[in-house]
Description:
Blueprint: H1 3-15, E1 20-21, E2 24-25, E3 29-32, H2 41-45, E4 53-56, H3 64-78, E5 81-85, H4 88-93, E6 98-101, H5 109-115, E7 120-125, E8 139-142, H6 158-168, E9 173-176, E10 194-197
Parallel strand pairs: 3-4, 3-10, 4-5, 5-6, 6-7, 7-8, 8-9, 9-10
Antiparallel strand pairs: 1-2
Amino acid sequence: MRRADFDTLVSFAHSLCPVKVRGKELPRLWFLTDSSRVAEPAAVLDRLPAGSGAILRDYDLPDRAALAARLAAAARRRDLTFLVAGDVDLARTVGAEGVHAPERDLAKIAAWRAAWPGALITAAAHSAASFDQMAGADAALVSPVFATASHPGVATLGRAGLVALMAQSPLPVIALGGITATTVQDLEGLPLAGIAAIGALAA
């Protein structure tokens, strides 16, 4: 990843209008972990601008709890918002600010909100039907916007599909999937709350 490309993503994210949730500004730039693509996620957190966000996915890692603790510590050093996907107990144990719900966990959001009223909760949305299960969430990560190495061959939304889902979303929308310094230009002018990436933000 060239520094100029990294800076392009940062600049685009910072050009978006800030959105406040639960009295705090929602990060406009997000990094999601994927151990198959980014071996050292803590190094990425160390590069992110203060105020950015990070989400630990990697659900099946045997040392997930240890990784969560390392990333939570890195996030605190850098003034980042850190979420753990799919595990409220782990998120609270490591001092994360909240939890992310993958599509398979959308039905758990209400229980998570009841158990942790002050948490920041984001949720994955791949279709309009996803929004019906997001009561209690604070923001939706809509994907895949563009072709992505995380899910090769999956149908993408493109700008038009993203716009259509944004019109139906009851929540602020963060664009995810194939976001690079090149593709992000296709999102110019959209009222996004943020953008999220994996490989494009890796060192």
